[in-house]
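Dear Dr. H.,

I hope your travels went smoothly. While you were away I took the liberty of generating a structure for the chain from your last submission, since the lab meeting agenda had it listed for discussion. I wanted you to have the full record in hand beforehand rather than looking at slides cold. The sequence, exactly as received, is reproduced here:
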Amino acid sequence: MTLKAEDLHKAAHLARLNIEPEATTPYLQALSSILALVDEMQGINTDGVLPMAHPMDATQRLRIDEVTETNQRDTLQKIAPATENGLYLVPRVIE
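The corresponding predicted structure, in token form, is as follows:
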């Protein structure tokens, strides 16, 4: 796919980017090479290839889900302007 300068400026306008005139050629070359790679990848047969969530087959280390704070709802609701049945009441903002 060959990009033209006007295509680049239309995309930049949609993305709310300002591209200086002297930067047009390097951007066109970079985007054209990216689109050429995408076209090349579209031609590869991927039938039977399972999608991967992560290429390194890594697992994320998670911390233990423990309660570290005490329940302070009653204490905090005492200083709230308005509460009802354990919930905070707030002013209506949408009619």
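Two observations you may find useful: The CA atoms of residues 82 and 90 lie 7 Å apart. The radius of gyration is 27 Å.

With kind regards,
E. W.
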